[in-house]
From TrEMBL:
MF GO annotations: iron ion transmembrane transporter activity; metal ion binding; peptide hormone binding
Topology of this chain in the membrane: Multi-pass membrane protein
Name of the protein described by the UniProt record: Solute carrier family 40 member
Subcellular location: Basolateral cell membrane; Membrane
Family: Belongs to the ferroportin (FP) (TC 2.A.100) family. SLC40A subfamily.
Taxonomy of the source species: Eukaryota, Metazoa, Chordata, Craniata, Vertebrata
One protein family per Pfam: FPN1
Chain segments annotated as transmembrane: 44-69, 81-101, 113-132, 287-306, 326-347, 359-378, 439-458, 508-528
Keywords carried by this UniProt record: Cell membrane, Ion transport, Iron, Membrane, Metal-binding, Transmembrane, Transmembrane helix, Transport
Highest rank taxon of the organism: Eukaryota
PANTHER family: SOLUTE CARRIER FAMILY 40 MEMBER, SOLUTE CARRIER FAMILY 40 MEMBER 1
Entry keyword Protease: no
Length: 560
């Protein structure tokens, strides 16, 4: 009779933990972009540099972070990453406050090099905070909730869906809170508020971590790495072998065990320096050898798109005559459809099975994106293939003057940014100026209708692949595999920003839409191949997977 309240307590604690972490994380990712824009005279240069540094760091260090998560105790990893993340944000907020208050003085010191050093320091500390946030996400979302859910896959699916709903809500509420504070206050007050929030949030999250850990004894037990398991098996095999009698060795011979010990040496300095590179290589090789490799690649390909509510799509919308208020409404609608996607995921998984849910979600997303393809050829579309997207590329890359964007317009553009599934990455492109001529809105209306409707299938598919990784990756490799998955996501996200840098003019946006839909289609083709290999002839059979039915029966039997 006490099992149910304890389960509810654990789920409530996990959700509160995720809410606190995600709310502060969303506020910081939104605010740091605005702060960097204001610091550099309403130019996107620092924001672009920050986005590239963040994407490049996770791309290179994702596997190493995941390996660190795997090789250390769960509580130690969660507490360390939590403290580093929040302390970095607090420190960065304090430095930003000092820079905003004394920017003129810093600008005159050593010909502006002190101010430049502050910029570098801010971006570096903010990047450390993002890397720690990545470690926290891998630990809590990919490992802890799997242990808390136990063998109940339905409960795991419900917890994943709840976490995604929290993510969607914080996407709206966190930027609104920071935006109001900065609008009616100042950037300095905004920095102080975020620093204070993270200080309080760190204490609350630390307490919740400890309570969830105490209530879940399974979190204290961690499966050993594969290498250790194999070594133990070999040692047992050696111990079972008959040993030679004492005194059978010749005078000049040494015991083989002593001979082996002599050959064991401490790792050299070069070997220790090469360890991160070996971890990087082994992580990617292990990711490739996973049974869910194609499903993970399919999810990563969805990041190579301009069809999300990020600064790129927002900037294009401004050129088509949409106001900031309309974009805010559209952003709210996208969050609602995202939550609908989480509801659809739980409903489909119960009736069709997990693998088929991803297939249905992919079909739904592609069907909605057809509207985006149609919008490219409708009246009002600026698509003009006669205008080369590479025209004047040299002048764009060597341009030294700040962008001619007013602070008001820039704050509107940034406030509607909802970095598409990228943990706060930002584009390295300029926002085109809004045309003064009236533009038909048929094309842009179809575009955003497709983008908003497609988020139902998008988030349902994202939850499907997330749970597939949770269920099919060995416990001792969850960290490194999910770290590599994050690296793949950031790699495709980085490529889509590079694509926009090469073709930033509105006339080429239709071409970017077609390329984006092509990559989404390729991602779902990869998932279809995975589903075909997994289910075989039962792919199109209606009903839950046999493995899930067996697990559910076992869970019901254990409850009885």
């Amino acid at each position: 009779c006490c099992v149910l309240p304890q389960k509810i307590l654990l789920e409530l604690g996990s959700c509160m933990l995720f809410w606190n972490d995600k709310y502060g994380d969303r506020m910081w990712h939104f605010a740091v972009s605005v702060f960097l824009v204001e610091l550099y005279g309403n130019s996107l240069l620092l924001t672009a540099v920050y986005g590239l540094v963040v994407a490049g760091s996770v791309l290179v260090l994702g596997a190493i972070i995941g390996d660190w998560v795997d090789k250390n105790a769960r509580l130690k990893v969660a507490q360390t990453s939590l403290v580093i993340q929040n302390v970095s944000v607090i420190l960065c907020g304090v430095i930003l406050m000092m820079v905003f208050l004394h920017k003129n003085e810093l600008l005159t010191m050593y010909h502006g090099w002190v101010l430049t050093s502050c910029y570098i320091l801010i971006i570096t500390i903010a990047n450390i905070a993002n890397l720690a946030s990545t470690a926290t996400a891998i630990t809590i979302q990919r490992d802890w909730i799997v242990v808390v859910a136990g063998e109940d896959r339905g409960r795991l699916a419900d917890m994943n869906a709840t976490i995604r709903r929290i993510d969607q809500l914080t996407n709206i509420l966190a930027p609104m809170a920071v935006g109001q504070i900065m609008t009616f206050g100042s950037a300095v007050i905004g920095c102080g508020f975020i620093s204070a929030w993270n200080l309080v949030s760190m204490c609350v999250e630390y307490f919740l971590l400890w309570k969830v850990y105490q209530k879940t004894p399974a979190l204290a037990v961690k499966a050993p790495p594969k290498e250790e398991t194999e070594l133990k098996r070999l040692n047992l095999y050696k111990e079972s072998e008959p040993k030679p009698l004492e005194g059978t060795h010749l005078m000049g011979e040494k015991d083989p065990d002593i001979h082996e010990l002599e050959h064991e040496q401490e790792p050299s300095c070069a070997s220790q320096m090469a360890e991160p590179f070996r971890t990087f290589r082994d992580g990617w090789v292990s990711y490739y050898n996973q049974s869910v490799f194609l499903a993970g690649m399919g999810l990563a390909f969805l990041y190579m798109t301009v069809l999300g509510f990020d600064c790129i799509t927002t900037g294009y919308a401004y050129t088509q005559g949409l106001s900031g208020s309309i974009l805010s409404i559209l952003m709210g609608a996208s969050a609602i459809t995202g939550i609908m996607g989480t509801v659809a995921f739980t409903w489909l998984r119960r009736r069709c099975g997990l693998v088929r849910t991803g297939l249905i979600s992919g079909i739904a997303q592609l069907s909605c994106l057809i509207l985006c393809v149609i919008s490219v050829f409708m009246p009002g579309s600026p698509l003009d293939l006669s205008v080369s997207p590479f025209e004047d590329i040299r002048t764009r890359f060597i341009q030294t003057e700040p962008l001619s964007i007013t602070p008001t317009k820039m704050s509107e553009i940034i406030s509607t940014a909802d970095a598409h599934m990228s943990n706060g990455s930002v584009p390295a492109s300029t926002v085109p100026e809004m045309s003064s001529e009236s533009v038909p809105i048929i094309s842009v209306s179809l575009l955003f209708a497709g983008v908003i409707a497609a988020r139902i299938g998008l988030w349902s598919f994202d939850l499907t692949v997330t749970q597939l990784l949770q269920e099919n990756v060995v416990e001792s490799e969850r960290g490194i595999i999910n770290g590599v998955q994050n690296s793949m996501n950031y790699l495709l996200d980085l490529l889509h920003f590079i694509m926009v840098i090469l073709a930033p003019n509105p006339e080429a946006f239709g071409l970017l839409v077609l390329i984006s839909v092509s990559f989404v289609a390729m991602g779902h083709i990869m998932y279809f191949r995975f589903a075909q290999k997994t289910l075989g002839s039962q792919l199109f059979a209606c009903g839950r997977d046999d493995k899930e039915v067996t697990d559910a029966d076992q869970a019901n039997t254990s409850d009885v």
